[in-house]
């Protein structure tokens, strides 16, 4: 939906998602390291001005991409944060949904995992899960001309290295001690004066808030067409 209006750069972090194995140094264990990897990547491909969209953990990384970028090398023009949170600080609450953490590191990911992680336990949530599940499986060797890559940690094929590293990132992000200085965002967001579209949250001074009804963590996938229109509109002004 977005690619009909914008040129997109989709990034998998080193050793995570559909990427190949990470280097000897391993997968990033802090959000700052992941943001530094993204900034290095953007520098290597010669990008000098970008808009950044980050969802969930990616939204944490996106915050530090914007906050830690060297303005002499890269200008982050606008920022879109969806289903995410600033680093730990006064007023930031941990999720009360314990079942999310029970399945977030599952060995095998199926539709039941998606129901728990991204959508509310309601009729609307169930319908949204099934629609998203069908949509992400539209890409195949027949439709795209290439065999889809396998998720790196699927079945713990990588020894769960990627999942463990991302768990460390999340754990540190939710502590004040783990997010001091350039490791976190809480104390620095109020100085981020670029336009920001937030699909939750209220701390940024130049932000617009959108809340999607009857949705949960994966609201942007439940309201995919509306979200795409909101993003395109936001980036156009």
From TrEMBL:
Domain AB hydrolase-1: 2-202
Gene Ontology molecular function: hydrolase activity
Name of the protein in question: Alpha/Beta hydrolase protein
Species lineage: Eukaryota, Fungi, Dikarya, Ascomycota, Pezizomycotina
Pfam family of the protein (one): Abhydrolase_1
Keywords: Hydrolase
Protein's UniProt keywords contain Acetylation: no
